[in-house]
Amino acid sequence: MTKEFETKAIRTSFDTNKREEHSTALYLTSSYVFEDAEEMRAKFAGELEGNIYSRYSNSNTTELIEKMKALEGVEAGWATASGMAAIFTTFGALLQSGDHVLACKSVFGSTHNVLTKILPKWGITYTYVDVNNTESWEDAIQENTKVVFVETPTNPGLDIIDLEWLSELARKHQLISIIDNCFATPYLQQPIEFGFDLILHSATKYLDGQGRVTGGLILGKQSLIDQVEAFARHSGPALSPFNAWIISKSLETLSIRMDRHCENALKLAIWLEDHEEVALVKYPHLPSHPNYVIAKKQMKQGGGIVSFELKGGLTSGRNFLNQLAMISLTANLGDTRSIATHPASTTHSKLSEEERMELGITPGLIRISVGLEHINDIINDIEKALKQ
Ligand SMILES: *Cc1c(COP(=O)(O)O)cnc(C)c1O
Fold first, then answer.
1. Nearest to 239, CA basis, from 80, 111, 120
2. Which long-range contacts (CB under 8 A, 24 or more apart) does 44-52 make?
3. What is the separation, in whole angstroms, between the first and last Cα of the chain?
4. CA 83–ligand 1 middle distance (angstroms)
5. Residues flanking ligand 1, CB < 6 Å
6. What is the CATH number of the domain that holds 13?
7. Boundary residue ending a domain (202, 221, 253)
8. Separation of 79 CA from ligand 1 center, angstroms?
9. For tag attachment on the chain, is the N or C end more exposed, with fewer CB atoms within 10 Å?
10. What is the pTM of this model?
11. How far, in Å, is the centroid of ligand 1 from the Cα of 44?
């Protein structure tokens, strides 16, 4: 077994089929044939490993899972059609009527919908806790709390949650700790090291990293993934072999892409801190970040996202976006192409002003997913837009 991250991302592969291709073949098949009745029986009984049907497994999804297991340092994994399918499948597999979820307040928009609109249909309740008021977390734990769910860095405020502290709290209360590790990727942050039970990903973001496909992963302890598998085999959120093939190939360049995303983002964050139109810059590895010390401890680099607050508020936020010539206005993040969003008027527009302020989504907040273009061109585009 090879050791370093880069090598695992490139060389870990599943290979039941003897093959000659140097690049993994694409297995577009919905089912697999058996040698005889005995093999068929044994595979269905789970006595023999191997593919049966692509809703359960496929050579391409298995290769992707094997790589991600190696990168996150976990025992087991499951692949899903999107990041949201990973989140919903995890909740569906682990929770039942009467259970309660503790979650950090600033979860991804669709996760917020699952917690507040979908799970309550089955009698599953939730409490949001304030990321920056850690004392309130323990008070929010109830008799029926089953899981604690967080994102760090959070979106779009880039707040940082102390993973080691939280996993200890979860263990003390026998809660399953779950993290959406999408913003950091396993290259920057490996939650298993800090004691987390389950790690979820939207592979749509940095893991593909080129804005082409959707995908998701659930990674962690075998006993928990067994429950995920029991749910997913029959509810069917399977990742397509084609998308698995794309994402698996993308993982081979994850480390060098993340290095450049982070290098560009840090340069942009430092440049923005000195700009007169900018009131505040949020970036995990800037010394001005309130949780800089924790971010340094648990993240290898600061990530590819920079948030900043314009002095002029809502109008200047919208004007800024309209003046950008190169940077794309789109809903994605973690792409080779730089992307700008204005959360107050888009992703978080349905919240009240008060709710937005609680999440740190001020009217002039801009989020940049810093891409892989040359940093001079990224800064030039932003500088021109700030001048207007
Ligand atoms: C995009 C995203 C998701 C959802 O992933 P999809 O692949 O779009 O379903 C979940 N969590 C975070 C933090 C995200 O950025």
1. 80
2. 50/16, 51/16
3. 55
4. 5
5. 82-84, 108, 110, 151, 155, 180, 182-183, 202, 204-205, 214, 216
6. 3.40.640.10
7. 253
8. 14
9. N
10. 0.95
11. 33
